[in-house]
Design brief:
Helix content: over 70%
Strand content: under 5%
Distance between the termini: 30 Å
Number of helices: 21
Structural class: mainly alpha
């Protein structure tokens, strides 16, 4: 019973999910009501998580962690989801996706993410991954009138099932040779034995997790699913699941595989380099904004993984700091994409933004600022995110990784700057509708202010991330 008090946030969301599911079934046309209550649940969960931050504890026989890192990531997941619900509201109604299942599926996915970032056991991690993934499969195909949405859902489901199978195979190998699924017990085995079957298990587990964050070469689902899914769902893919995936990877690499850093280091380096370069090169020929953002996210995940190759707390701090800034940039990007609407038709091609600055100077400025930040141009927030990563890898004597990251940044700047050129120098198109909801405008304004003025106090996020990772010492 003593352990229950540490999982109040999870229990609160689970009870909320069950109640809302019952209300949605028995109350007709209940989307607005369910969505408001879901939003309130997320808001209330933030102080519950914060008040739960009373120390670093391992509960349920060391299979579940309630510590500063998991609580920090949970709050980040909740905040990014709240922004998502805020700026996608108009889109959902216009596209007639306003079914009560929509917010409930998001709530279900968030519960899975909470399990992922706190689990210290392979079985618990798998349950969290599947709870998140099953919700995302349905969300990807929720627009039943769209062939692209259906195709995206099927592709995501099939490839997701493959990655889950590979992950489970890796878990079975580890369990077979260690006799446990608990991270700490497996780590003790690694002190005495690093046989080839165990290393195969590690490879398959990393493959399964790399798929969830769309890292190369397990990224093949990402561009098609980003483009085919409703934009509100694509926004969700770009935000909270990345946080949960990174949290799971940090915990399994640094706790479960912490004793065999040299064995997994080269694997993560390969995935990081491949992600940075493929994301940079493959995005050059893209004209669909959502597909371009998919390749952009692949590249950014490469930078996050590059920081983790350092193998110490400094690498984790750099990775989470990068993720914080990345989330802010994605909120701004997708809020801007949802602004590009004319007569209830949403435009996703980069050439639809031709001459945007002449009709919508403020939105053009905010979007251009976000694109410059994604490219890592100083003094915007994205520059500091990459600076933290490059600093950590250079200090770890992996200068070649920083050089590859710089090259990838220069290449990626091309397709970001191409959009800016289209917005500011091409002939103007017809104006977009000015009636975008307050949620879009607030999200764009809030994120743009952080991106522009982050340089005034760049150590602020670092301070909180350092506090969140203190248990890694």
């Amino acid at each position: 019973m003593n352990n229950i008090e540490f999982i109040y946030p999870e229990l609160f969301l689970i009870v909320s999910l069950l109640i809302l599911l019952i209300l949605g079934v028995y109350k007709s046309n209940s989307y607005n009501f369910i969505k408001k209550i879901t939003t309130i649940c997320f808001l209330l969960c933030i102080p519950i998580v914060y008040l739960n931050n009373i120390g670093d504890f391992n509960i349920f026989n060391n299979s579940y962690s309630v510590d500063s890192l998991s609580n920090y990531l949970k709050i980040l997941i909740l905040l990014s989801t709240l922004f998502l619900l805020m700026f996608t509201n108009d889109y959902i109604k216009i596209q007639k996706l306003d079914k009560f299942e929509y917010p409930i599926l998001i709530l279900s996915a968030v519960i899975g993410m909470f399990l992922m970032v706190s689990s210290n056991d392979l079985i618990g991690l798998y349950l969290g991954i599947e709870l998140q993934s099953l919700s995302l499969y349905v969300l990807a195909s929720i627009d039943r009138g769209s062939e692209k949405s259906t195709e995206a859902g099927v592709k995501y489901f099939v490839l997701g099932a493959l990655s889950s199978g590979l992950f489970l195979y890796g878990c079975s190998l580890l369990y077979g040779f260690s006799g446990s699924t608990n991270y700490y017990e497996i780590s003790e085995v690694f002190k005495q034995d690093t046989s080839i079957p165990i290393l195969f298990g590690i490879i398959f587990i990393i493959i399964g997790l790399a798929f969830k964050i769309s890292a190369v070469p397990f990224h093949m689902w990402s561009p098609d699913v980003y483009q085919g899914s409703p934009t509100s769902v694509t926004s969700f893919f770009a935000l909270a699941p990345k946080i949960a995936g990174l949290g799971a990877i940090i915990r399994i690499l640094y706790i479960c595989f912490g004793e065999i850093y040299e064995e997994w280091k080269s694997i993560i380096i390969f995935i990081a380099v491949a992600s940075m370069l493929l994301g940079a090169f493959a995005a050059i020929g893209q004209t669909n904004l959502k597909r371009l953002m998919a390749y952009s996210s692949i590249s950014h995940i490469g930078y996050v993984l590059a920081a983790l190759t350092v193998g110490n707390r400094d690498g984790v701090i750099s990775a989470i700091s990068y993720l914080n800034i990345y989330i802010i940039m994605m909120i701004s990007s997708f809020a801007c994409i949802l602004f590009f609407k004319r007569k209830n038709v949403y435009f996703e091609n980069i050439y639809d933004l031709s001459g945007l600055s002449k009709n919508h100077p403020v939105i053009s400025f905010c979007f251009a600022t976000t694109l410059f930040s994604l490219a890592g141009i100083p003094p915007l927030a994205g520059f500091f995110a990459k600076f933290y990563v490059f600093k950590s890898v250079v200090e770890a004597n992996m200068i070649y990784l920083a050089i590859i990251g710089l090259i990838a940044s220069v290449i990626s700047a091309f397709y970001y700057l191409r959009i800016v050129k289209i917005m500011y120098f091409d002939p103007e198109n017809e104006k977009f509708d000015e009636g975008s909801n307050i949620g879009i405008r607030f999200s764009i304004l809030f994120s743009s202010i952080i991106i522009i003025f982050y340089f005034l106090n760049p150590s602020l996020i670092l301070y909180y991330v350092e506090m969140a990772t203190k248990f890694l010492n």
